[in-house]
Amino acid sequence: MNSSLSLNVSIVRPEYFFIAGLTGVPYSHYYYIFLFCTYIIAVIGNCTVLFIIAFDRSLHSPKYIGVFNLALADFGETNALIPNMMRTFLFESQYISYNACLANMFFVFFFSTMQCSTLVVLAYDRFVAICLPLRYNTIVTNTVMSLICSAIWAFNGFNVGTAVLLINRLSFCKSNVVPSYFCDHGPVYKLACNDRSINAVLAVFNICLYLIAPLILIVLSYLGIFLALSKITTWEGRLKALKTCVSHLLLVTSLFLPIICIYLIASTTYLSPNSRIISASLAYATPPMLNPIIYVLNTAEIKLLIKKVFKNRSVPS
């Protein structure tokens, strides 16, 4: 243990943390291989969406700036989480240095917060498009959407960075075993043996900021959307407008529903460490894999572009 003195208080920092992962589960390496398969699909899918939106000028619109932002966050989150898990558990390298642990914590949570925030931005886009269709092109422009996304990146980076930096004020004098599958903020700060109240408050604040608040905003936006749809006289018109929201609703469900279920179960009943690790890792790993599939299957512009690419390749030169 390497110790240093700060403000006359001994701050003890471990040279390494030990990531516990699944314990006592036979053939657990098969589960990590499954996560690696989801990683490959997520990387290919999100790279496809990123390249399509970047190089097709017809998709340079506010909605697809939001989709591009989400695909970038998915790509970053899955790369921050799963490759490190492969190295840790498949190659039995469960020790991670103190600084590397904090870096891993930052990037996983930074990109995860970007996923939640971007879904709120996409909900705002759908709300304006359906509730204020005549003013959509003046309210939601490429410049406005780019500024919103840039502000979110900056704010989330500062907020997550603050939470990670506050780990440095903690003294780890009891244990360095992290009962999780990565350098998770909660399990790490709970290992401290000095005052960790600020870290606990910030953890609750971030849960409210990135889980509860986004859900409330998304629900309110869809209440407004359903109210606007009720004023459309024909069912065909309602279904046509609602169809533009299907992809977003599926994305919200795939991201928030598993996380909410985990928090509810953990707060009402006892959840074993292995069960928590499996459920949490699936909740983190599957949305980046599903998001590009959902958008490709439910977005006519992207499907049409992919069909054109394959049609051009199949035509002999």
Describe, in plain words, how this protein is organized in 3D.
The longest helix is centred in the middle third of the chain and has 34 residues, at 98-131. The protein contains eleven helices and five strands; from the N terminus they run βββααβαααβαααααα. The protein has 317 residues and is mostly helical. It has a three-stranded mixed sheet. It starts with a strand and ends with a helix. Helices cover 73% and strands 6% of the residues.
Estimated radius of gyration: 22 Å
Task: Count helical runs.
Answer: 11
Mean pLDDT: 87
Give unreliable regions as ranges: 1-8
Q: What's the β-strand tally?
A: 5
The portion of residues assigned to helices is over 70%
- Identify the strand order in the major beta sheet: 4-3-5
Strand coverage percent: 5-15%
The computed structural class is mainly alpha
How would you sum up the global shape? globular
Summarize the helix and strand pattern as letters. EEEHHEHHHEHHHHHH
Distance between the termini: 67 Å
The major sheet is characterized as: 3 strands, mixed
Top keywords for this entry?
single chain, 317 residues, mainly alpha, 3-stranded mixed sheet, two-stranded antiparallel ribbon, 11 helices, 5 strands, disordered N terminus
Q: What's the arrangement of secondary structure elements?
A:
Layout: E1 2-6, E2 9-13, E3 16-19, H1 28-55, H2 62-90, E4 95-97, H3 98-131, H4 136-139, H5 142-165, E5 177-178, H6 185-189, H7 197-230, H8 235-243, H9 246-268, H10 273-298, H11 300-314
Parallel strand pairs: 3-5
Antiparallel strand pairs: 1-2, 3-4
Helix pairs in contact: 1-2, 1-10, 2-3, 2-5, 2-10, 3-5, 3-7, 3-9, 9-10
